[in-house]
Design brief:
This protein has 20 helices and 15 strands. By secondary structure, it is of the alpha/beta class. Strand 7 and strand 8 form a beta hairpin.
Length: 498
Amino acid sequence: MSPTISYGSRSLDLDRHNAEVRDMWQAYREGHPSRCPIVFGINPRLYLQDPRLNTQGITFREYVLNPDVMFQVQLKHQHYVRHHIPQDQEMGLPRSKWGYLLGRCDVQQEEEDTNHGWTVYVDFQNVYEGAWLGCPVEFPGHNESPYCVRLLTDDEKNLLFDRGVPDPFKDGGWMERNIRTRERLQELARNTIFEGRPVSEEIELSGTSTDGPFTTYCEVRGAENACLDIALDPEYFHRMMSFLTEAISTRIKAYRQYLGREIVQPTFAFADDCVELLSVEMYREHVLPYHKRLTEMFTNGQENFIHLCGNASRLFKTIKEELNVLHFDTGYPIDHGAVRRELGPEVEIFGGPRVEFFLGESNKSIWPSATEAAQHAYQQAGIKNPLKELDVAEVYNPFTYQEMIFYECFGFCPRGKSPDYVLKGTFSMAGALPCDPSGGVLCTNPIGASGLIRLAEAARQVTGKAGARQVEGAKLALSHAMGGIDQFNGVTIVGAKL
């Protein structure tokens, strides 16, 4: 009898599912897919941050620093995903050798093999590169993933130049831990049978590829300073990018040799999430030369693979043409149709659609949560005509087009008319309703605090403490914050008097 798993009120016949998925991927590879594959790139953060799964309360600190904990968490995480999250990959216990690369599953052999088992890897989350270079690693409370603390302050900008490229094996810190962790995971794998299946001793190290030279720059220097360096000290910026690229390539070469792999391979897979901060022109001038250096060093001219978490689709065409990247993994919701039309049929695109696609919303110019938040706030504050009654507004505007959408959601102007109102100066400092006199999120965006800054700026306005950006006579202000993709919005009305 075929094994089954249940999820919700449904059950899944594993033999039938796995056979269908195997055939689907085969057709996909041959160029005539039966449908669009759906997979989920889920890492052990899911297990660690869900108290229903992580009943022992294991922290990220314990997971990252203790290989025994890392081993057990990864096995339990894989077991949960394989039995509770249906997708186009093998479900149930591992029975054949499947590859999993940045969200893509592929059958590597068709015959069932009960000797094939679970896979584990050294997982330092996203801190390994900055930590190797000397950044302190912070494990925040509430069991959040670790992050690197900025290393290079303005007073010590040249610290890495003075230290030189750290040893990939004997750095006295994270890379030594990297090797020790792999050795311990291999030892555990040799002696473990989990749910009747062995664990593979092929353990991947952290650092065999890269999170990207510009992202590493942002880790060691801070994202805001990275952008300022481009504008104010480009000579230093390029010297540091050259240093980081040399360090990254030194480590990758050393690890490929250590693992018995060819240094030059058909495909180079890498990431660089922070390029989302750059325009196409800035990317071409300031980062592309270093991406070229890496791809030329590690691939023989065949197709490459890039992972970009962030709103970076404007860069895809340049990346494809300049780096021969034919596989894009997007951690940010994109317009698949637009990207496909721009890049052509030969490019493989992994990534998710926007949240509204699943919610059934078709009109992307209307964000119900923002409209509803404003309506509730106006009702509580007794506001009937926000354009006339408000004196100033601090709108959450990470992208220019979003700011105009919010003008309409908040009733500052009719639907579809925000461009006209902007052009006639309605929302300028001298207009009927000055918006974002602080410069808004477009000027500074410390994620997590951006919404609170809007509230603080609104409070400064109504108390007459906004300095050079003070709107004369401001007594009633709106502040706005947004979270998620666009599904969470908060609106607060702030007055000079209760």
